[in-house]
Specification:
Blueprint (H helix, E strand, L loop, with lengths): L4 E2 L4 E2 L2 E3 L4 E2 L4 E2 L24 E3 L4 E2 L4 E2 L4 E2 L4 E2 L4 E2 L7 E4 L4 E5 L2
Parallel strand pairs: 1-4, 2-5, 3-6, 4-7, 5-8, 6-9, 7-10, 8-11, 10-12
Antiparallel strand pairs: 12-13
């Protein structure tokens, strides 16, 4: 997107990033993860999930050390608090935080 600020040590597997997005240092945005369902097969041999790009909509602020799991959408105008792990989609104009990230309040 236009006018984005992406800081150092940001890891992006696959994502669509909108305009005016701020991503703080040490953020990880994943599009796949390891399969671990069969306890009789070493996890390293079970492969990975199908690629699912994350979508970061316009005017989003992602705080330091955030982890965003595969296929997540962060809605327009949202803020993700530092150190959060995002496992579910974030609605527009939401402030989320925690592990796992939960709605703290809405922006008005």
């Amino acid at each position: 997107g236009d006018h984005c600020m992406i800081n150092e040590d940001v890891y992006i597997q696959k994502a669509v990033i909108g305009n005016y997005v701020m991503i703080a240092p040490n953020v990880a945005i994943y599009s796949s993860t390891h399969i671990f369902d069969d306890i009789n097969i070493p996890m390293v041999l079970q492969g990975k999930t199908v690629d699912a790009a994350c979508i970061i909509e316009d005017n989003v602020w992602i705080g330091r050390n955030v982890v965003i799991m595969p296929g997540i959408t962060i809605g327009t105008g949202s803020i993700v608090g530092a150190g959060s792990v995002v496992t579910k989609n974030v609605e527009q104009y939401s402030i989320v935080g925690g592990v796992p990230a939960k709605l703290l309040r809405k922006r008005t």
